[in-house]
From TrEMBL:
The lineage of its organism: Bacteria, Bacillati, Cyanobacteriota, Cyanophyceae, Oculatellales. Transfers and isomerizes the ribose moiety from AdoMet to the 7-aminomethyl group of 7-deazaguanine (preQ1-tRNA) to give epoxyqueuosine (oQ-tRNA). It comes from the Bacteria. Belongs to the QueA family. It is found in: Cytoplasm. Keywords: Cytoplasm, Glycosyltransferase, Queuosine biosynthesis, S-adenosyl-L-methionine, Transferase. Its EC number is 2.4.99.17. GO terms for molecular function: S-adenosylmethionine:tRNA ribosyltransferase-isomerase activity. Pfam families: Queuosine_synth. This is S-adenosylmethionine:tRNA ribosyltransferase-isomerase. Monomer. Pathway: tRNA modification; tRNA-queuosine biosynthesis. GO terms for cellular component: cytoplasm. It is an enzyme of class 2 (transferase).
């Protein structure tokens, strides 16, 4: 092993190596309309790249290629209530709750504000006399386990649809977007605390054009939770532990991928959540149907098993998502492409523009 290779590998493990400076005005506060009019940075064989528009996608892929999308649906996971204080006549402190995942019937892992006042045993009251009790503190996330006072056979989701708020990321501070604009047009399985944002650019008309070109698509499910957006805090990124997220890759998806590859087509994952789902389902060495949680953390040096190409948005500095994309095309090239996008006034993050990494870029 050469000294240069060892040095590059060590740098790739450093959290600081995934930092970049983004002007505040590049953070998209609203989505473009129509969805497929967003810009698309197309990454080809090194060092080539092109500036396109997302609706150009049918001309950029080949007949026989397969798109794999995440059909999770964002739930109205942000709730507002107050702490019940039996020692006072007036209502207690206001409480903000972000539901992350249901761990058992009506017991949800949640991030809460103010956390210091909500220790085990504390009770929160919401609208319509719905209450939840803090039963434990989750040491991995700093969140709380909340047990809601609902009958076993009753779901919390109908109440959320009436009283909950779709949670936009904290960097979106001045948005006029409607809640449905933070959902993909193919979302159908409720359970996410955040959208799989690479899919926000698709429209029904674009799917029709892709199909006419011979480019098909399948859907899997990964419910986006704290694992996706939790910051990496270890200076050595290999020490970071991903929080588990639930996913399902069905037998029909596995069959479609196998058939695509057998016919010489390429598998293009739409979003980092689709990437993690496919690669998690192939950790035995071959892609198999899978239903359960994954803590898979992909960073440079990862050995790819399924994914050939990727459609992705532009991600936060030092995020696990940047590290995943770096594993596909290299950290230095990714940072250079990000700088190109900044120079060309691309829009970043959830409501921003996209990048298409063609399979030629990964070889």
């Amino acid at each position: 092993m050469s000294a240069d290779f060892a040095t590059d590998r060590d740098i790739d493990r450093s959290l600081a190596a995934y930092d970049y400076e983004l002007p505040a005005d590049r953070i998209a506060q609203n989505p473009v309309v129509p969805r497929d009019s967003s810009r698309l940075l197309v990454v080809d064989a090194p060092p080539q790249f092109r500036h396109c528009v997302f609706r150009d996608l049918p001309t950029l892929l080949r007949s026989g290629d397969l798109l794999v999308l995440n059909d999770t649906q964002v739930i109205p996971a942000r709730l507002y209530g107050h702490k019940v204080d039996r020692t006072k006549i007036a209502d207690g402190a206001k409480v903000e709750v972000l539901l992350l995942e249901e761990q058992k019937p009506h017991c949800w892992l949640a991030l809460v504000k103010p956390g210091k006042r909500l220790k085990p045993g504390a009770k929160i009251e919401f609208a319509d006399r719905l209450t939840a009790q803090v039963v434990a503190i989750d040491t991995d996330t700093g969140g709380r386990l909340l047990q809601f006072n609902l009958p076993t056979e009753q779901s919390l989701l109908p109440w959320l649809s009436q009283r909950g708020v779709v949670p936009l990321p904290p960097y979106i501070t001045n948005s006029e977007a409607d809640p449905e604009q933070y959902q993909t047009v193919y979302a159908k399985r409720p359970g996410s605390a955040a959208a799989p944002t690479a899919g926000l650019h698709f429209t029904p008309e674009l799917f029709d054009r892709l199909q006419a070109k011979g480019i098909s698509h399948v859907t899997l499910t990964l419910h986006v939770g704290v694992g996706t957006f939790r910051p990496v805090e270890s200076d050595d990124i290999t020490q970071h532990k991903m929080h588990g997220e639930w996913l399902e890759v069905s037998p029909s998806v596995v069959e479609a991928i196998q058939q695509t590859k057998a016919n010489g087509g390429r598998v293009i994952a739409v979003g980092t959540t689709a990437v993690r789902s496919l690669e998690a389902a192939a950790q035995t060495g071959t892609l198999q149907p899978y239903c359960g949680k994954t803590e898979l953390f992909i960073y440079p040096g990862y050995q790819w098993r399924v994914v050939d190409g990727l459609i992705t948005n532009f991600h936060l500095p030092k995020s696990s998502l940047m590290m995943l994309v770096s594993a596909l095309i290299g950290r230095q090239r990714l940072l250079a492409l990000y700088q190109e996008a900044i120079d060309q006034h691309y829009r970043f993050y959830s409501f921003g523009d996209a990048m298409l990494i063609l399979p030629e870029a990964t070889t």
